């Protein structure tokens, strides 16, 4: 497939053009859900250079009055899943040791009541569901990327990313970082691997589990890509372009965000 010519200026500030092409999607070397490796072709598209930040999401909320899923009346109460480091080494077969549902946790109170994002305007927004991400994308005249578009844009080697440096889940916790704190990939994109997982438009239909939180049940799931600051060599090797996980569409967490694409 010939590369798609760039169609003029970016549709908005902070986007870059990814010329279409064919690539080997997936991996045979890590987790079952990444198999098989297959040839996939994508058309050219514009993509956000960085994940949507708290500052950009705040502007969207101010202009639209959007109330995120985590802020709505829920049973038992509005809230979201928050990561808490453990006091010491633990067995890694029960995520409930480091994840908990925190009432009041949301995009502007990432750790729950008493926390805020006043100094984190350049950090990726978190505690958003696909519904929230798609509402933002519609407001911005954009869409969520497909799994293939995301992985194609993420291609390359990553030597330094915001992952867990230390022994998960107790020693070495970093948290999210401002976009641009780590080097871009070969396409000039920031935080495609590490920092926060990112929602895509594709359903997750495989029967495999995941490492980073609850994925079972009857609620439909979406593919998330890229790994996060909680990925660690001793626990989760999903801080790679080919890696993916399924996340319930009604679930928001302190380590999942998103970025947008625009297709010509």
Mean pLDDT: 92
Please state the CA-atom Rg, rounded to the nearest Å.
18 Å
CATH topology: paralog of FGE (formylglycine-generating enzyme)
Oligomer: single chain
Q: Widest sheet: strand order?
A: 9-8-7-10
**Range of strand content:** 15-25%
What is the total domain count?
1
Helix content: 10-25%
> What is the CATH C-level name?
Alpha Beta
SSE pattern, N- to C-terminal:
EEEEHEEHHEEEEE
Compute the number of strand runs: 11
Give a short account of the largest sheet: 4 strands, mixed
Q: What is the CATH superfamily classification? A: paralog of FGE (formylglycine-generating enzyme)
- What's the overall geometry? globular
Instruction: Label the CATH architecture.
Output: Alpha-Beta Complex
- End-to-end Cα distance, whole Å, is 17 Å
Q: Which segments are poorly predicted (pLDDT under 50) over 5 or more consecutive residues?
A: none
User: How does the helix and strand content classify structurally?
Assistant: alpha+beta
Compute the number of helices.
3
Domain Sulfatase-modifying factor enzyme-like: 13-261
Pfam families: FGE-sulfatase (PF03781)
Organism: Solirubrobacter ginsenosidimutans
InterPro entries: CTDL_fold, Sulfatase_Mod_Factor_Kinase, SUMF_dom, SUMF_sf
